[in-house]
Amino acid sequence: MTSPIQDSASLIAQLNSANSSVGKASTVNPNSGSAQQDKFLLMLTTQLKNQDPMNPMDNAAITSQMAQLSTVSGISQLNTTLQALSDSMSMGQSVSATSMIGHGVLVPGSSMSLANGQAIGGVDVTQPADSLQVTVKDSTGNTVRTLQLGPQKAAGVVPFAWDGKTDTGTTAPDGSYKISAQAMLSGVSSTPASLSYGTVNAVTPGATGATVTVGTQGEFALSAVKQVM
Question: N or C: which end of the chain has fewer CB within 10 A?
């Protein structure tokens, strides 16, 4: 009794299997080009041994499978090259990001630190606005200051400063305050994201890109930095 001949799709599926006996017995990376070629040749030999002698595989079938092996091997090599390129770009990004150390930045956040009558924050507006307002609240949730930032002609980051003066004219004590924003466009209200200000203390390389440590706000992906002050 003879075994059925495997088709190309089945062969490639087995070629990519990480659980094959060849992969387990070898110390070579099972996804490497050489390991894949070894597995292919082993399975091809097995096919030839067990083929139907009355209906043997023709040269075209074998050539087709060899071509598919070449494609799989090429993809593996391409993935290796792309990974090396990605690692290089990530490291270059990290090195470039170190120039931000010691600089103030705006990152997503809803807090603002008042010190010596000075505080900085920002708003990330996604569309123009007829008016933009920022509300500053203390730790108990009471509104201490409402800042009118005026109309915004385009989307983008809108930085602002607070001198510590309250709506009643007194001076607010130093400390942490909560901020929120409200925009109006043609009578429709929206709540754009608020941004916190902090100083970049460190840059850390990572598999998915560099991260920056911003003051007491914590770590942020480099892409999360909305503006360098």
Answer: N
Please measure the distance between the N-terminal and C-terminal CA atoms of the chain and give it in whole angstroms: 78
User: Residues 169-200: pLDDT tens digits?
Assistant: 999 999 999 999 999 999 999 999 999 999 99
Annotate the chain with DSSP letters as a single string. -PPPPPPHHHHHHHHT-TT-HHHHH-SS-TTSHHHHHHHHHHHHHHHHHHS-TTSPPPHHHHHHHHHHHHHHHHHHHHHHHHHHHHHHHHHHHHHHHGGGTT-EEEEE-SEEEEBTTBEEEEEEESS-BSEEEEEEE-TTS-EEEEEE---BSSSEEEEEEE-SB-TTS-BPPSEEEEEEEEEEETTEEE-PEEEEEEEEEEEE--TT--EEEETTTEEEEGGG--EE-
Domains of the chain listed by start with CATH number: 8-98 (no CATH), 101-228 (2.60.40.4070)
Are 214 and 173 spatial neighbours (Cβ–Cβ below 8 Å)?
no
Q: What is the pTM of this model?
A: 0.61
CA triple 111-113-117, angle to 5 deg: 140
Annotate 148-188 with three-state secondary structure. ECCCECCCEEEEEEECCECCCCCECCCEEEEEEEEEEECCE
Q: What are the tens digits of pLDDT across the range 69-103?
A: 667 666 667 666 666 555 555 555 656 778 889 99
Compute the distance between CA of residue 16 and CA of residue 8 in angstroms, rounded to an integer.
12
